[in-house]
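Sample entry (363 residues):
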Amino acid sequence: MTHPVRLGSLTVLLLVAGSAARADDIRELKLKDWQPRSMLVVKSTRVEKPAAPVIDVHNHLYSTKEIGAVVKAMDAAGVRTVINLDGGWGEELKQELKRFDRAYPGRFLTFALVSFKGIDDPGWGARATRQLEEDFRAGARGLKIHKSLGLAVRYKSTGKLVRIDDPKLDPIWTACGKHGKPVMIHSADPKAFFAPLDRFNERWHELNEHPGWLFHGKDYPSYAELLAQLRRVIKRHPKTTFIGAHVGSQSEDLGAVARWLDELPNYHVDINARINELGRQPYTARRFLIKYQDRVLFGTDTFPAPEMYRLYYRFLETDDEHWDTATSHHRQGFWMVYSVFLPRPVLEKLYHKNAERLLGLRR
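Predicted structure, serialized as tokens:
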């Protein structure tokens, strides 16, 4: 008869050995630790300078201290002008205009912001509009609206979110049209940010690293509702120029962006921080950028650096295949991209001509 103590010891040893084997089993690799390396051998093109001077219409420079260093980076990358979207309002705006626009003429253009403080007040609309018009007279070249409108700004009296198409904001949009100042508006994020964070979410890695970027659930409007609100505003204010940031927040559906551009002549989009999306649909993206070459602007949403800009140039100007854009902004999705090799006339419009027209700039 087998000794019971010995049998128990043998069972423990087998379990321990089995656990060790499982720990080394590649099938136990966690998704977060998977970092595949492509075996594909393809060419890599380095584009030092763009095919035409660049105006970066979407950047954030509020915390910048060494502005001279930024100018050097722009010079190295062939960037003529950067739009600083962090101007603020009132005295703060004047200080930003002094630090950037006045100190480096032609290199920086600053946009104003709107303060939503006191929006419950019946007189908020008139007050905010007066301030915005003062900011335009001071030198602000446009208005930036963050995604906080629609996703975070709330009425204190009710706790409800302020909608993008809230009639209380109509005087703001009207003032921009009256003064010929474009509205750069960020209304939503990638579609995956509004979907459940489950095994089907294609931005699983990114959202696990940044859980605050997930807008799925009862506390937020749906992706479709946010876009519907924006569309109503653009349609209601045909004399105001709107620039939809991040390919209009619809970079995963260029057919939808095309329909908006066809139906809304006062609407434009920029490509900032979305070459990762455009580059995984290169045939569609190339056709889209060529067809709507008068309605698309160049932007990065990333602090100016030569190597960052060169990735954008590589995407727009070359026919490189299967490469990583992560360092152009940050890791966005677990895929590689393909460049779209745009014709020179299209590049010129995308890089600077469209921005010159909308901003009333001389070359």
